[in-house]
TrEMBL record:
<dbReference type="InterPro" id="IPR014710">
    <property type="entry name" value="RmlC-like_jellyroll"/>
</dbReference>
<feature type="domain" description="ChrR-like cupin">
    <location>
        <begin position="21"/>
        <end position="113"/>
    </location>
</feature>
<dbReference type="InterPro" id="IPR025979">
    <property type="entry name" value="ChrR-like_cupin_dom"/>
</dbReference>
<dbReference type="InterPro" id="IPR011051">
    <property type="entry name" value="RmlC_Cupin_sf"/>
</dbReference>
<dbReference type="Pfam" id="PF12973">
    <property type="entry name" value="Cupin_7"/>
</dbReference>
<protein>
    <submittedName>
        <fullName>Anti-sigma factor</fullName>
    </submittedName>
</protein>
Length: 117
């Protein structure tokens, strides 16, 4: 059981507990019409980010997942990986070593997680 004395060590006050609003993170353009806002980066290189793809934008080249996998959640719009369309609410797991060509005809917002960087 957690007591009042333990509250500083658990929950939102625990060491390492991090929160960040996209309003506080400047978008970085990584390809024409595609921006990334890095929300978190762990000691092992893991990262969490929000990516916005403007209507008609296409990633230049292949987006290779290295050294680890990429987890994608389509927050809004329709994401296309170069082959298939994925509507808002879709989750994708791209294993290490796989690749795609991120793009969107209508624009989209994605939440990305890279457990291994």
């Amino acid at each position: 059981m957690i007591t009042n004395g333990d509250l500083a060590s658990f929950g939102p006050n625990a060491p390492g507990y991090v929160w960040k609003s996209t309003a506080d993170v400047e978008p970085i353009e990584v390809s024409r019409g595609i921006t990334v806002q890095l929300l978190w980066q762990g000691d092992n290189g893991g990262k969490a980010a929000v990516t916005t793809i403007e209507p008609g934008a296409i990633w230049v080249g292949e987006d290779l997942h290295d050294p680890g996998p990429e987890e994608v959640y389509v927050v809004s719009g329709v994401f296309n990986d170069g082959v298939n369309d994925y509507a808002a609410g879709t989750f994708l797991h791209a294993p290490a070593g796989s690749w795609h060509v991120p793009q969107s005809t209508e624009g989209c917002v994605l939440f990305l997680f890279y457990p291994e960087g």
